[in-house]
Design a protein that fits this description.
With 182 residues, the chain is α+β, with helices and mostly antiparallel strands. The chain has an eight-stranded mixed β-sheet, sandwiched between helices. Helix 1 crosses helix 3. It is globular. The chain starts with a strand and ends with a strand.
Length: 182
């Protein structure tokens, strides 16, 4: 598996720790749209030091094939992060599965970037990593995310009751999956 991939309009890159300031900018600029769907983060989350440590951890878990996070860049502006796609909780063996996640800068939404990046990421997970199953968990009122995952042919499997603690409240999530039949 590589650390750099491209689509027609995007670059997908596993970023080294030196990108911590750009990662921090991305999260700060989009805090207002990400936080309603994310767990509560410590205030230090919005520091370069925290992001540096996170990028070190992401590199380590990428090498171990446990978690993979690609940062997204427009080819026409390759120095600015516009999103992330991740494949976490990678389990090998009889499950051979991962959980998908994604975020996109509020200024870049409704351009098909998330769809384009996720298509490439899924291709990598199924054809290079040979995963069998990818699962998505989405808060039921996150309609744009549900529509996106459905466009990618994920199948609704039901409700994962009280799946995640979001800002002090256990929240149900819709569970979707995509199976690699190759």
């Amino acid at each position: 598996m590589y650390t750099h991939y491209e689509t027609n309009r995007l670059i997908l890159e596993i970023c080294p720790p030196k990108w911590c300031y750009e990662v921090l900018r991305f999260y700060q600029d989009n805090r207002h749209i990400f936080e309603p769907y994310d767990p509560a983060y410590p205030e230090r989350y919005y520091t370069a030091e925290y992001q540096y440590t996170t990028l070190q951890y992401e590199w380590k878990t990428f090498q171990e094939e446990k978690n993979i996070r690609f940062y997204l860049f427009e080819k026409k502006q390759p120095g600015r992060i516009i999103g992330t796609i991740s494949f976490g909780n990678i389990i090998r063996g009889f499950l051979n599965s991962a959980v998908i996640g994604y975020k996109l800068d509020h200024r870049c939404q409704h351009r098909g970037y998330a769809f384009e990046a996720l298509q490439k990421g899924i291709e990598i997970m199924f054809y290079e990593m040979k995963l069998h199953r990818i699962t998505a968990y989405i808060i039921p009122d996150n309609i744009p995310s549900i529509k996106l995952i459905q466009r990618l042919y994920f199948t609704y499997e039901g409700t994962a009751r009280e799946y995640a603690l979001i800002h002090g409240k256990w929240m149900d999530h819709c569970q979707y999956s995509l199976i690699n039949h190759l």
